[in-house]
Amino acid sequence: MKKIGVLTSGGDAPGMNAAIRAVVRFAIFNNINVVGIKNGFRGLVEGDGIEMNLSSVADIIHRGGTVLGSARSKEFQQEDGFKKALNNIKYLGIDGLVTIGGDGTFKGALELGKAGVPTIGIPGTIDNDLPYTQYTLGFFTALTTVLESVEKIRDTSSSHGRTNVIQVMGRNCGDIALYAGLAGGAEMVIIPEVEYNIDEVCDKIMQGRARGKKHSIIILAEGAGDAKNISEIIEKKTGVGTRYSVLGYTQRGGTPSAFDRLIGSQMGAKAVELLNNSISNRVLGVNGNEIFHMDITEALSMKKQFDENTYELTKILSI
Ligand code: F6P
């Protein structure tokens, strides 16, 4: 392994910079050169790569976003674009590629692997929607960001005796909502994994008020419905003033948490170690305190298990 490429693709996630830094520094430590590919697979299609050195990744470990830029490239998914990417990989002299991103990124890596490019995937997405790993890079930082907002909204919700619906990201996965619901003491979470009944939501709000609760916080996963619509229905049915907030892109940015910096650093180094040992077409994951790797095809074929226990506990604790 003489030269490794590294890219970040799809929605950015806090901690990606820690992973990039680790790839670059661990590779250089092992006498391997590194090319940073700009803007994900689009950069491969366009041949947009820069040689990285120790200083290229100085002062980035604590920064959100990704210094390499990110994109969702349609061109890469088409035959012409894919061919261009393969040619550029050759032209840039890349012997192995570290791809940091979510499942779209891994699908791209899988195709490159089939075409003979050794890849290692690092799970980077705030959504925590990759089935094979307990946590993804960025999830805990996004969760903390959500909690900061929940606490602020709770203050005003309590002052005005309102119901507040807070919509969070996560695509089709309810993990951000679910974990924020438990950690933020929400009255209810609405997530795509569990069918909900709006009358039950309203009953719960009224029961809480009957026993003196001043406010109700409902955390809604974006994949489960629309905050504006749901809050209008709740206000109509309960007669309680109901407001909504869509937290949006605040969840994607900001200083990465200690956990995300740690796993970003560990996975970045591990990715280089694997490629340097001729192990490829694998993805890295986190299980407890451990970083593991598994076959990329197997990882992509898995179905995410719903965390029933956390859901039930959130419900029990919010009575
Ligand atoms: O995958 C991360 C994510 O932030 C999702 O939670 C959200 O649905 C999506 O990306 C938004 O995508 P975009 O950045 O393309 O608007």
Structure description:
The protein has 319 residues and is of the alpha/beta class. It folds into two domains: 3-138 and 256-301, 3-Layer(aba) Sandwich (Rossmann fold), CATH 3.40.50.450; 140-253, Phosphofructokinase domain (Rossmann fold, 3-Layer(aba) Sandwich). 43% of the residues lie in helices and 18% in strands. It contains eleven helices and eleven strands. The strands form two sheets. The chain has a seven-stranded mixed beta sheet, sandwiched between helices. A four-stranded parallel beta sheet has the order 7-8-6-9, sandwiched between helices. A hairpin with a 2-residue loop joins strand 10 and strand 11. Residues 11, 102, 125-127, 169-171, 222, 252 line the site of 6-O-phosphono-beta-D-fructofuranose.
Topology (SSEs and partners):
Layout: E1 3-8, H1 16-29, E2 33-37, H2 41-46, E3 49-52, H3 79-91, E4 96-101, H4 103-114, E5 119-123, H5 139-160, E6 163-168, H6 175-184, E7 188-190, H7 198-210, E8 216-221, H8 227-238, E9 242-246, H9 258-276, E10 282-287, E11 290-295, H10 296-301, H11 308-317
Helix pairs in contact: 1-9, 5-6, 6-11, 7-8
Bound molecules: 6-O-phosphono-beta-D-fructofuranose.
6-O-phosphono-beta-D-fructofuranose (F6P) is lined by residues 11, 102, 125-127, 169-171, 222, 252.
